[in-house]
Amino acid sequence: MSTISDVAKRAGVSTMTVSRVVNNSGYISQETRERVERAIAELGYVPNALARYLRFKQTKTIALILTDITNPFFTTIARGVEDAARDQGFSVIFCNTDESETEQTEYLQLLLQRQVDGFLLVPASDSDESIAALRARGVPVVLLDRRLSVGEFDSVRCDSVQGAYELVHHLLALGHTRIAVLSGSKAVSTAVDRVAGYTRAMCEAGIGEDQHLVFYDRFTQGDGYRMAQRALAASPRPTAIFAANNFIAFGAIRAIQEADLRIPEDISIVTFDDLPQLWVMDPFLTVVTQPAYEIGHKATELLLDRLAGEGPVETREIMLPAELIVRKSSGPPPTVATKL
Amino acid sequence: MSTISDVAKRAGVSTMTVSRVVNNSGYISQETRERVERAIAELGYVPNALARYLRFKQTKTIALILTDITNPFFTTIARGVEDAARDQGFSVIFCNTDESETEQTEYLQLLLQRQVDGFLLVPASDSDESIAALRARGVPVVLLDRRLSVGEFDSVRCDSVQGAYELVHHLLALGHTRIAVLSGSKAVSTAVDRVAGYTRAMCEAGIGEDQHLVFYDRFTQGDGYRMAQRALAASPRPTAIFAANNFIAFGAIRAIQEADLRIPEDISIVTFDDLPQLWVMDPFLTVVTQPAYEIGHKATELLLDRLAGEGPVETREIMLPAELIVRKSSGPPPTVATKL
DNA sequence: CTGTTAGCGCCTTCAT
DNA sequence: ATGAAGGCGCTAACAG
Fold first, then answer.
1. What is the pLDDT of chain A when averaged over all its residues?
2. Residues 6+ apart with CB under 8 A from B54
3. Angle at B68 between CA B62 and CA B70, to 5 degrees
4. What element of type H or E holds B224?
């Protein structure tokens, strides 16, 4: 691992001259330039970016902290982030918290030490503790997908209340009245907001919400499975299920299949977050899809704005539109269907 | 952004003392320790890891360079890498090359400058150019999933020849004789090896390979679609398709559906790489699955071994077992089925 | 138990 | 057009 002074020695110049050649700054005679370049090539010299950062106080690196790297919704976000970051010469460090507050805190600490310039964060929960350090240091942060009750960070997400409202409204229009909702942790805004959208739709329809049909747990397949089992045990049984995300939906579907119920004849199911079209032979889930790539891209733009010292003083809250796609997993409830 | 000397000043000690408190090294009187800790808390001091690395020549960071971050096979690998790395206090920088040699070269260069300690690489192609710099510098590298003709790197992967052989053998046993193979780029070892496995099985069966039924393109859904269209246009039409990975298979299935053919009645299809069980309502593809998580985990262990100066001098080549799972997408060829 | 010195690799500033 | 000195933040080695 040769350094700049190795090169300087070999080329018979000062380190400054090498630096100027490497960074194309200042005036260099053609002849010395060539000599230096030859020395660089011969030694396989690669500049040490760390040393450079130590002076510049800018690492050109941002961190993307996700809660689940195996969820295609989040990897698509990552794609958007990567593209936007690279456009401006930034690198991205991806981190995975597994929805754990502890891991999030650890990563935040680590990344702070590593002097990343800014954070893109899908918060594992709405606890202030973990991000207090960020606020204290005034590091630029943009929130993705989820709200935080401290209102001082830029954020990019979809309107979960509205999306949930549309899904449940769709079910109501089909004639359902007993609709269960299976949601994530109460500490996560999307879980709360999606239940709020459900409640709004139910109240508007004059039905109101049945506390026994509202479930909170976590955004995993296993939890979806268990919540669905409990929902199906309710009496009378719900005729439709609203799963607050795709993984919960998969678990619920498994439970429905085990109960020997047909979708949508016996029970309808709708959810947030599609799978990428191409991975599914025959898309059948009625969903609200969110523009994941754009969420990542837009959030990165906001962050890089801040890093460039641009952007307004006040915090920005960007809401991207979500889209309802009606497919085969939702139909009229059994009793209504019978009447047809 | 306070520094170690800010803390030192505030606590009325030298920077060395602060350093000792932060790193828990050497002897410190209880009283000074408390004073320093108070100063740290008051200033919100966070040590600058970069400055530290500048001395240590070790960043405790490894790079994971993938070709497609949206493919669940690779994100599962990423999971394994992350877990193994964290166990030993290493961070991971994920990068995505999109199967592009150019992007790979750029990333390699960037990461070298950033002084990452080692590389986990899924090579975009078997070109020497891009990795020449790695070899020249002697940075530890472990190859994942794919071979490289330069044999000096450790590697972890599954046996693609064997896996392909088993899939094609399975089709032959069902009675197929006209089997098309849709593979990835000839510059990628898995693409080549899977065709080799196909050829071996076909030759063993005394059929030999029909050059018109062997297709190379890239590992994407679009290419799978186009290759399948050409395969289906062959006359007589193949009764089975072996897709060299999941994305190619999805494209092929779309083409098959558009041609109004039924799977497996009219045509069978088998492939490498499953989708995670939980994402699929009703798994129907006959596949060879690879232990992606273990590939990532094992590769990371090899790399960290090297970094610790352990491990043998010779290069290690780890082959993990792949598993054939027969499901509904493969059945006897039409003529045979008719006879039943 | 604590402080001083020196240097990691680079670049800005000021000379020459 | 080129070079010398100094310092970014941190810590190992050696005082004291």
1. 92
2. A48, A50, A51, A54
3. 110
4. helix B221-233
Task: For the beta carbon of residue B262, count every other beta carbon within 10 angstroms.
Answer: 11
Helix extents (H) in A58-187: 72-87, 101-113, 129-137, 160-174
**Amino acid at the residue B266:** D
Which domains does chain A show, CATH number per domain?
4-47 (1.10.260.40), 61-159+291-320 (3.40.50.2300), 160-289+324-339 (3.40.50.2300)
Q: Which helix (H) or strand (E) holds B181?
A: strand B179-183
- Which chain A residues are Cβ-neighbours of B277 within 8 angstroms? none
C-alpha distances in Å from residue A228, one per residue of A42, A185, B13: 66, 15, 61
pTM: 0.90
Q: Between β-strands A240-243 and A179-183, what pairing exists: parallel, antiparallel or unpaired?
A: parallel
Whether A50 and B50 lie within 8 Å, measured CB to CB: yes
Q: What distances in angstroms separate CA B209 from CA A215, A295, B177, B272, one per listed residue?
A: 57, 48, 10, 20
pLDDT in tens, B32-64: 999 999 999 999 999 999 999 998 888 999 999
Secondary structure, 3-state, A256-297: HHHCCCCCCCCCEEEEECCCCHHHCCCCCCEEEECCHHHHHH
A70 vs A76: CA distance, rounded Å: 10
Question: Which has more pLDDT, A302 or A150?
Answer: A302
Vertex A333: Cα angle to A329 and A337 (nearest 5): 105
- Here the tokens at position A229 are 């089992």
Residue with smallest Cα–C1' gap to D2: A17
C1' of D4 to CA of A16 (Å)? 10
Label residue B151 by pLDDT band (50, 70, 90): confident
pLDDT bin (cut points 50, 70, 90) of residue A234 is very high
Contact residues, chain A, for B70 at CB < 8 Å = 72, 75-76, 79, 276
DSSP B36-88: HHHHHHHHT----HHHHHHHHS---EEEEEES-TTSHHHHHHHHHHHHHHHHT
Owner of token pair 């999606």: A194
How large a percentage of chain A has pLDDT more than 70? 97
Reference B21, options B5, B9, B10, B34; nearest CA is B34
Question: How confident is the model at residue A313, as a pLDDT?
Answer: 86
